[in-house]
Design goal:
By secondary structure, this protein is an alpha+beta fold. It has helices at 23-34, 90-97, and strands at 10-13, 43-47, 53-59, 64-70, 85-88. A five-stranded mixed sheet has the order 4-3-2-1-5. The protein is globular.
Amino acid sequence: MIFPSSTFKIYLATDPVDFRKGMDGLAAHVMRNFDLDPFCGAFFVFRSKGSDKTKVLMWDGTGLVLIYKRIEGCGFVWPKMQGGTVTLTKAQFEALFEGLDWGRVATAHYTHPKIA
């Protein structure tokens, strides 16, 4: 699996999309519905109508990459459908992708040492 670095933006579409869409259809969905650039290098995470499938779209600098995962068991933990997107941290994305409750994941806050 390709996991994003902490410098990438990760957007989760809260409403389900038509899973017959391929990478071009999902890129058009990003541009039309979220007013975002699908070629900016961000990760765009989509859900199916059921809770068991996800697609991740990203531009790696040379082409579009589409990752499709079907999880067995209880399915993925999704936010309430509200339209638009939710921004995820790297830790939240990794938890979501593993089928964990990503909403309970919090990134630790670090303070930078002061130079004396």
